[in-house]
């Protein structure tokens, strides 16, 4: 337990309450709405483009996406739209949806039974790094966290069946995909895990862009050492690499500043 603003706070209980698998679709709606708001909170947006999605807890073949044209800071639990495994709205009178986000929901959730949330972003620095043959280099601790999870796919504007099969094949092997010259996709068992991967991917790419822009000789972490570091990190009890450590605090921050996300 910890003391916050003179209030005794049961941290472990609050943490666990927000990291158990969602029991109902209302839980999923609230978690996905929170994910959108937290992405906005940290500037991880691109006007009305980009998206996040979540698998239904009550019908694993269905998922939730947001109405196209809504900004992330506008998303509420009730505004999210449920679609089936073929991308069709459960409520045919529902709002306009982004076809790219519908495709992602199908490709990710139909091919990864272990995934419940995803984030798709267009961060400038990820696009910059993705536009190089080298891709993400070992220039930061965040790169050590994530590089073993990353795959790359070439950008194509027309997302036809062939592209969909290629995407499904790659997302089946990787928890992060960088689309060269375009953006990224992170997946996770929880909203916390999908966010953690997105946040630190953006950080790792920003560090790389800044590092290389200085015009000095770079000092890259040896790949074998990076693998050794990650092996130690992943087996350590001192930290969680799935967002578990930070998620409850992010929700408390959101509750203080934008609690209407649950409505």
Question: How would you summarize what this structure contains?
Answer:
By secondary structure, the chain is of the alpha+beta class.
CATH architecture: 3-Layer(aba) Sandwich
Secondary structure: number of strands: 9
Q: Strand-and-helix sequence, N→C? A: EEHHEEEHEHHEHEEHHH
Oligomeric description of these chains: single chain
Largest sheet: 7 strands, mixed
Major beta sheet, strand line-up = 5-4-3-6-9-8-7
By CATH reckoning, the class would read: Alpha Beta
Classify the fold: give the CATH topology: L-fuculose-1-phosphate Aldolase
Mean pLDDT: 91
Distance between the termini: 29 Å
Produce the secondary structure layout.
Layout (H helix, E strand, L loop, with lengths): L1 E3 L2 E3 L1 H7 L7 H17 L9 E5 L7 E3 L15 E3 L15 H13 L5 E5 L2 H7 L10 H6 L3 E5 L6 H11 L4 E5 L2 E6 L2 H23 L9 H12 L9 H15 L5
Helix pairs in contact: 1-9, 3-6, 4-7
Provide a descriptive summary of the structure in words.
The chain has one domain (22-258): Class II aldolase/adducin N-terminal domain (L-fuculose-1-phosphate Aldolase, 3-Layer(aba) Sandwich), CATH 3.40.225.10. Helix content is 42%, strand content 14%. The longest helix has 23 residues, at 191-213. α4 packs across α7 (191-213). A hairpin with a 7-residue loop joins β3 (51-55) and β4. The protein is globular, with a radius of gyration of 19 Å. The strands form two sheets. A seven-stranded mixed sheet has the order 5-4-3-6-9-8-7, sandwiched between helices. Mean pLDDT is 91; it is low at 4-20. It is built from nine helices and nine strands. The protein has 263 residues and is α+β, with helices and mostly antiparallel strands.
């Amino acid at each position: 337990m910890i003391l916050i603003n003179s209030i005794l706070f049961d941290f472990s209980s609050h943490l666990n309450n927000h990291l158990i698998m969602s029991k109902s679709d209302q839980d999923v709606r609230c978690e996905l709405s929170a994910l959108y708001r937290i992405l906005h909170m940290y500037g991880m947006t691109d006007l009305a483009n980009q998206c996040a999605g979540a698998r239904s807890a009550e019908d694993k073949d269905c998922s939730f996406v947001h109405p196209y044209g809504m900004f992330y800071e506008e998303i509420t639990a009730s505004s999210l739209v449920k679609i089936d495994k073929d991308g069709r709205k459960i409520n045919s009178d529902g709002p306009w949806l982004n076809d790219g986000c519908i495709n992602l929901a199908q490709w990710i959730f139909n091919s990864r039974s272990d995934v419940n949330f995803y984030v798709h972003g267009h961060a400038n620095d990820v696009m910059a790094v993705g536009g190089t043959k080298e891709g993400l280099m070992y220039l930061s601790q965040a790169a050590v966290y994530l590089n073993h999870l990353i795959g790359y796919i070439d950008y194509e504007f027309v997302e036809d069946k062939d592209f969909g099969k290629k995407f499904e094949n790659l997302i089946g092997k990787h928890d992060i995909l960088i689309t060269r010259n375009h953006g990224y996709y992170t997946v996770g068992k929880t909203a916390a895990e999908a966010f953690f991967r997105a946040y630190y991917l953006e950080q790792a790419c920003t560090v790389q862009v800044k590092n290389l822009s200085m015009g000095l000789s770079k000092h890259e972490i040896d790949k074998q050492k990076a693998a050794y570091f990650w092996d130690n990190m992943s087996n350590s009890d001192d930290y969680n690499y799935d967002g578990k450590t930070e998620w409850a605090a992010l929700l408390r921050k959101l509750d203080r500043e934008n609690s209407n996300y649950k409505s």
